[in-house]
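User: I've been trying to design a sequence by hand for this structure and keep getting stuck. Would you show me what you'd pick, starting by listing the structure so we're on the same page?

Assistant: Good idea, let's start from the same input. This is the structure you sent:
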């Protein structure tokens, strides 16, 4: 039985609604459920699911749609009641109810001393809210995506004219004056300022800095196009570098990014030279260079963090691959590979972090002869079906194609675990590589959610007479509420080898796959 309920002028946050959909799908007798706003994208999704009716024709972007499918009318009735209860629970005022305002203007008036606004609204409405914030003299962290390139250029031009920082669009991570914002980690305060185009890249580097005994002064996200597009021209990154240059608490500046536009990269390098402060640069996918004056080039995310900490302490830097002794690594590789069967040939990476995915692809690509993914630089390795892996495949399950109508897998891990379970019976999988990102905004127990899928894949391989090595890394710190030690225990109990960083996990995978080739 199918049922569609339309509630006019009932706006709810999209992430809340996605989580409600996930909860309702688990109810007995319910085969599918979508609770969403009536945006054009969501209406298309419902039609693709076979949901249609006069209610959808009347729906607008500010209207709530509840679409339910169940084995009986009683099951659907119960699900509708559950949706109402969940909506009421999530909308119920808490201790901070006095600070919930009907408009941004009212919020600015109530908190005139505030100087930073986080904006997370559908992309079509984001430019209007950004202009309001900039007009009110506020710096902006723009979490929203689907903002056009033309609008981004206009908004960042306006922000620079006003001397205000616009982080984003699609900026998911920042740490400002010690306050983690959106997807971020609890890190130690210190003298290292970080500028990053990507969220999990910023999380990985700031977490590793903190775990290595260093600390963060500021961590500023720019949004993915800031350095990649010549039209945006590094506007936010350059303003961030200028701000860190003037900040007395910042002694070392770090810049990390996916490959930027060459002209933009040169502007960033010149801006860093101009600061006179020691700077560490890592541009994923581009060859590193030798140190030049105050500039130091790192080869990976972990080296970026450790180099910055060493420089902040006035110490020399000696690069290394693993924390463990080489003999221990060799023994680990031999142990994990020894029982892998001859039919097992391919590596699969199931990631939730985009930058961590890129680092894995960059390190492993040449040795494996090419890696399939959703959006590779070499289009010959684009997956024919994004929902199905082939040969060596590494996917970022946070890509938009995987999250239509669903929360990001850092919030709801089922996007990743469902894929892993679907592919558990693939007898050619030789090794699985995963990340585990904890911290603010993430699932309360990502390792606990991931562990059963790992165990299932390993049992399936054993049943076929093989063995499946699984390598994991955890992005986060001891201060994160998920408790990094318990996360490691959960992954280890499921049979995964847990490495201290994404880079070390990827390097271990590279060595295992190289040994498998010789057998």
């Amino acid at each position: 039985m199918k049922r569609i309920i339309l509630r006019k002028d009932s706006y709810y946050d999209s992430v809340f609604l996605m989580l409600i959909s996930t909860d309702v799908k688990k109810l007995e007798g319910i085969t599918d459920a979508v609770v969403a706003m009536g945006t054009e994208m969501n209406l298309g999704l419902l039609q693709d699911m076979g949901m249609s009716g006069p209610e959808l024709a009347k729906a607008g972007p500010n209207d709530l749609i509840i679409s339910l499918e169940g084995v009986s009318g009683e099951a659907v009735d119960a699900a509708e009641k559950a949706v109402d209860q969940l909506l009421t629970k999530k909308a119920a005022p808490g201790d901070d109810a006095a600070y919930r305002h009907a408009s941004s203007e009212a919020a600015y008036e109530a908190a005139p001393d505030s100087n930073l606004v986080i904006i997370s609204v559908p992309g079509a409405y984001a430019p209007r809210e950004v202009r309001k914030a900039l007009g009110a003299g506020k710096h902006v962290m723009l979490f929203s995506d689907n903002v056009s390139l033309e609008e981004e250029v206009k908004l960042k031009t306006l922000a620079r004219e006003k001397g205000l920082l616009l982080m984003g669009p699609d900026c998911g991570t920042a740490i400002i004056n010690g306050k983690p914002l959106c997807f971020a980690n609890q890190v130690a305060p210190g003298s290292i300022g970080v500028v990053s185009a990507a969220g999990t890249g910023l999380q990985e580097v700031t977490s590793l800095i903190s775990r290595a005994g260093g600390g963060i002064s500021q961590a500023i996200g720019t949004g993915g196009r800031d350095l990649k597009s010549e039209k945006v021209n590094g506007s936010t990154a350059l303003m961030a570098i200028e701000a860190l240059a003037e900040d007395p608490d910042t002694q070392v500046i770090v810049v990390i990014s996916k490959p930027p536009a060459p002209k933009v990269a040169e502007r960033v390098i010149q801006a860093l030279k101009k600061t006179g402060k020691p700077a560490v640069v890592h541009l994923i996918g581009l060859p590193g260079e030798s140190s030049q004056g105050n500039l130091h080039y790192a080869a990976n995310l972990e080296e970026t963090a450790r180099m910055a900490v060493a420089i902040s302490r006035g110490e020399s830097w000696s690069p290394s691959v693993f924390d463990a002794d080489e003999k221990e690594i060799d023994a680990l590789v031999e142990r994990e590979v020894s029982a892998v069967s001859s039919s097992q040939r391919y590596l699969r990476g199931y990631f939730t972090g985009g930058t961590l995915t890129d680092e894995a692809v960059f390190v492993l690509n040449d040795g494996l002869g090419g890696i399939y993914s959703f959006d590779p630089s070499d289009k010959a390795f684009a997956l024919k079906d994004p929902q199905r892996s082939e040969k060596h495949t590494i996917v970022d399950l946070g890509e938009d194609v995987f999250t239509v109508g669903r929360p990001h897998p850092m919030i709801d891990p089922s996007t990743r675990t469902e894929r892993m379970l679907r592919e558990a019976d693939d007898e050619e999988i030789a090794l699985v590589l995963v990340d585990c990102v904890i911290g603010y905004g993430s699932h309360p127990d990502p390792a606990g959610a991931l562990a059963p899928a790992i165990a299932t894949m390993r049992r399936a391989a054993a049943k076929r007479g093989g063995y499946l090595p699984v390598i994991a890394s955890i992005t986060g710190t001891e201060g994160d509420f998920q408790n990094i030690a318990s996360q490691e225990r959960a992954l280890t109990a499921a049979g995964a080898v847990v490495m201290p960083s994404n880079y070390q996990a990827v390097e271990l995978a590279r060595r295992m796959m190289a040994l498998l080739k010789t057998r």
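That's my pick for every position. To get oriented when you compare it with your attempt: Residues 177-319 form a domain with the Rossmann fold fold (CATH 3.40.50.261). The first strand starts at residue 2 and ends at 7.
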